[in-house]
Fold this sequence. Notes:
Oligomer: single chain
Shape: elongated
Helix content: 10-25%
Distance between the termini: 84 Å
Amino acid sequence: MRPFGFLTTLAALLAAPAASASITGVCPDGSIFIVQRAEAIPCTRAKLVQPHEVPPVRPELLPNPYTWQVYNEGANPNNPYNLIDAARDVRALSGGPGAALPGVEAEPRDAPAPTVASGGQPRPSTLGLSDDEIRDLFLIVELSQDGAPAAFVKETAAGGEAFVLSFAHSSAFDAQLRERHPRGAELAGTPILLFSAVAHRPETFHPNFTFTQAHLAFSPESSIETQFGVVVGRLGGLQAGEVVLGWVALPGQLSLSDPLGVYWNDRHLMAVFEPL
Length: 276
């Protein structure tokens, strides 16, 4: 009888409806809850999230902002999600297996390789600025470091400056950029930052910038002319004594009057570009 009773109990358990899925969310005070019923949510105005979307309880203790980590996860070229498209591009260019999906025509074998947006080389554009005006912009970036410091410095083994990357804001340049840029009208209402890079020794410079504020994170693409521009110099390998002057257009949601996180490669600083 015991085996029969055990089988009956097992059949009843298998036939029983599965337990309802849990509800996960975050309350306005930052507390996280997991409940079985909506009426058990312990607060009003709760934000419901999927379990994998639950943010860290103490994000301020992380070495980098949580939004920066989320951005990196999505932008990481080694993310398997991103590798799918990259692998398809490689197969299409090589004519290998999987070169074309059903209903999609593969590119001709002699088609040029696609340009990666983040690696595009923007051409310098002086915007019609005179030599004196360009020198003034370099000077603005340098002098701004006294009132609104925002600079990354690579040092030599002896402690000297090897490479200096500085950021600053200039209302005068904002007006010039919007007036002289071919698509200046699209830059209305966007905060503009100038940057200068000075190489005191051979150095490789790429504008791997990310700007963060509150829950927002933005990484400009150097190939998009309404996000990034080079006025003087070039990107990539620089020789000792070479300089670069450029600008970055930020989304209108970011404020230059509030602390702004600036990331360049693995370096980070906080700056207020328009002190009140």
